[in-house]
Amino acid sequence: QVQLVESGGGLVQTGGSLRLSCGASGRLTSIHSVGWYRQAPGKQLELVARIRSTGSTDYADFVKGRFTISRNNAQNMMYLQMNSLKPEDTGMYYCHANASGDYWGQGTQVTVSS
């Protein structure tokens, strides 16, 4: 079992920045990858960024050059630095871990005003 807790969401103006954090606990040695997903109102859940146990990363095209995913293994933390935010980035952001199963945080709301 892996437990995930997100923080750092909020309201920001277009062009602003936010940093999301995700703390992990439990069977961390079983984690293959961790990442961030988001769900905008009326839309499907979509991958934002992912970082594997090897350190390699994947980004959705719509965030490339604006968002950066990182992790601190010593503190069991993962981060998503979001810059140049746009109104279409608004949504609920979820921390996800693939650890012989899918584990999700409770989500943190990001709202970007125009």
Structural account:
This protein is mostly beta strands. It has no helices and 11 strands. A hairpin with a 4-residue loop joins strand 7 and strand 8. The radius of gyration is 13 Å and the shape is globular. The mean pLDDT is 95.
Explain the layout of strands and helices.
Layout: E1 2-7, E2 10-13, E3 18-26, E4 33-39, E5 46-52, E6 57-59, E7 67-72, E8 77-82, E9 91-98, E10 102-104, E11 108-113
Parallel strand pairs: 2-11
Antiparallel strand pairs: 1-3, 3-8, 4-5, 4-9, 5-6, 7-8, 9-10, 9-11
Give a quick precis of the structure.
This protein has strands at residues 2-7, 10-13, 18-26, 33-39, 46-52, 57-59, 67-72, 77-82, 91-98, 102-104, 108-113.
Please supply descriptive tags for the structure shown above:
single chain; 0% helix; 7-stranded mixed β-sheet; 11 strands; 4-stranded antiparallel β-sheet; 114 residues; mainly beta
Total DSSP E strands: 11
User: What's the total helix number?
Assistant: 0
Quick one: biggest sheet?
Answer: 7 strands, mixed
Tell me, briefly, the overall form.
globular
Question: What percentage of amino acids are in beta strands?
Answer: over 45%
Radius of gyration: 13 Å
- The helix content, as a percent range, equals under 10%
Q: Segments where pLDDT lies below 50 for 5+ residues?
A: none
Secondary-structure content class: mainly beta
- Terminal CA distance: 40 Å
Mean pLDDT: 95
The SSE string, one letter per element, is EEEEEEEEEEE
